[in-house]
């Protein structure tokens, strides 16, 4: 059963003329207050005329080391090569890095040491993390961290 009101609903009309007037007033306001600025990206940077020459590399600075990790069956670690030198385990690699770079206390070449990891596409992630741990440092018996190599970068993986 429908209930009908005796009064018909009054239709409410919204006057559009005042709304259009307000829009034009806002448009005129923003046009009048607009300030033209210089182009984006024009920073007026003054670069030096030429960079200082690199010269001969420091004898104390270590060359970048390239660590190649090859994957075996099932993604296991089958080969470790650092700058054309083969290692049987990550412990041997860790000992070699300690001899090469030195510990945090001696600071022999710690600043310039850099390792680039080149891993096979099918290598398990846990082996990559173990290799990073072997070259980056260790925690000694006192619980303090001994840093070896802080700059570690990766070559992009190539799918087989």
Task: Walk me through the structure.
The protein is an alpha/beta fold and 160 residues long. The protein has a domain at 65-154: Nucleotidyltransferase, domain 5. It has 3 helices and 7 strands; from the N terminus they run αβββαβαβββ. The strands form 2 sheets. It has a 5-stranded mixed beta sheet, with helices on one face. It has a two-stranded antiparallel ribbon with strand order 5-6. β5 (137-139) and β6 (145-147) form a beta hairpin. α2 packs parallel to α3. The protein is elongated, with a radius of gyration of 34 Å. The N and C termini lie far apart (75 Å).
CATH class of the domain at 65-154: Alpha Beta
Structural class: alpha/beta
Question: How does the major sheet shape up?
Answer: 5 strands, mixed
Total number of helical segments? 3
Report the end-to-end length measured between terminal Cα atoms. Answer: 75 Å
